[in-house]
Amino acid sequence: MQDIERARRRIKLRDLHILLVVAQRGSMAKAAAELAMSQPAVSRAVSDMEHALGLRLFDRGRGGVEPTLYGRALLRRGVAIFDELTQGLQELEFLADPTVGQLCIGSSESVAAGLLPAVIDRFSRQHPGIRLHVVQTVLGTTHYRELRERSIDLLLGWIPTPFGEEDLTVEHLFGDPRVVVAGRHSRWARKPGVALADLADESWVLPPPETFPGAAAADLFRESGLRVPRVPVATLSIHLCCRLAATGRFVALLPGSILWFGGSDLGLKMIPVKLPRASATSVAMVTLKDRTQTPAAEIFIACVRDVAKSMAEKPRARR
Questions:
Q1: Which of 4, 11, 51, 292 has the fewest CB atoms within 10 Å, i.e. the most exposed one?
Q2: Cis omega before residue 272 (within 30°)?
Q3: Is the pLDDT of residue 121 over 60?
Q4: For every residue of 129-152, which 3-state class applies, written as one string?
Q5: Are 183 and 266 in contact (CB under 8 A)?
Q6: b/e 91-106 (16+ beta carbons within 10 angstroms → b)
Q7: Predicted pLDDT at 122
Q8: 233 closest CA partner among 223, 222, 242
Q9: What CA–CA distances, in Å, run from 276 to 60, 78, 177, 189, 241?
Q10: Contact of 79 with 20, CB cutoff 8 Å
Q11: Contact, 203 vs 251, CB < 8 A?
């Protein structure tokens, strides 16, 4: 590679932006259309970068372009550079007016049905000018792509144990044991001392087995010495799960936090079934390690911790 100092003087933010768009679109022509530039100008900008670095950044072909090993390395750093620049501009905006800003939150559906509404309710009352964008994420087999691509600022949800993602930081918020639920008018809702084996022949609503929640549910039954029961409906939709259980024809396994935060509004009742310790899972907040958080994100994170702290005391208070 050519002299780093000389290459650094020649490469500008505009060049990195062009590089990122070309990689995202996989085509010089498509990148040119998005950037409102001519295709020769885009091609020339990429060629000039390759010449300045003395390295080939893209392989060209009839089907478009593909980053080389060198291109992928530079792109990773380029994403971080633009992320830090965006964070800096947002921080300036916040410092100029601390009542405004925006934040993108990733959440598993179970957290979106329990903890998150309580956090947002408190946060939005205190900071109504900060816009929140919430995207649903599926945890377990995910590669946490949204965090790594910096399309979300933080992620809330169940996490597998042990957690082996070295570039991410995990903060455990509270233990969230799963509970067996049925509709308020279900025959099981009126029976004391129900064992999990008593429910073996019931119609269960459980997460799909190939997902992290589904695998955790299967482990729970196996730890109890039972086969996984008949599952006429497999879904990750908490809304569908609650609505079906509320009919009284189905039983379901839910995170306890959903009932603690909104059980009275769902038409559900917890069945007093003793479950193995494996039923306890951890709700956590996941962030990208070494990423500087915006002031808005720091305030939201503090709000999450406050609500989670009160949440951690609820199971003990209700025993």
A1: 4
A2: no
A3: yes
A4: CEEEEEEECCCCCCCCHHHHCCCC
A5: no
A6: bebbeeeeeebbbbbb
A7: 94
A8: 242
A9: 56, 47, 10, 20, 22
A10: yes
A11: yes
Confidence band of 276 (pLDDT split at 50, 70, 90)? confident
Looking up tokens 């009919």 gives 247
Kindly report the three-state secondary structure assignment for every residue of the chain: CCCHHHHHHHCCHHHHHHHHHHHHHCCHHHHHHHHCCCHHHHHHHHHHHHHHHCCCCEEEECCEEEECHHHHHHHHHHHHHHHHHHHHHHHHHHHHCCCCEEEEEEECHHHHCCHHHHHHHHHHHHCCCEEEEEEECCCCCCCCHHHHCCCCCEEEEECCCCCCCCCEEEEEEEEEEEEEEEECCCHHHHCCCCCHHHHCCCCEEECCCCCHHHHHHHHHHHHCCCCCCCCCEECCCHHHHHHHHHCCCCEEEEEHHHHHHHHHHHCEEEECCCCCHHHEEEEEEEEECCCCCCHHHHHHHHHHHHHHHHHHHHHHHHC
What average pLDDT does range 243-261 have in this prediction?
A: 90
Residue 133: pLDDT band (50, 70, 90) is very high
Q: How many whole angstroms separate alpha carbon 24 and alpha carbon 34?
A: 11
Q: Are 204 and 252 in contact (CB under 8 A)?
A: yes
Would the pLDDT of 317 be above 50? no
Q: What is the pLDDT of residues 70-117, one digit of tens each?
A: 888 888 888 777 777 777 777 777 666 767 778 999 998 889 988 999
Per-residue pLDDT of 194-237, as tens digits, reads 899 999 889 999 999 888 788 888 888 888 889 988 899 999 88
Instruction: Name all domains of the chain by residue range, CATH numbers in brackets.
Output: 4-83 (1.10.10.10), 101-173+282-318 (3.40.190.10), 175-280 (3.40.190.290)
Provide the pLDDT confidence category of residue 139 given band limits of 50, 70 and 90.
low
Confirm if 208 and 235 have CB atoms less than 8 A apart. yes
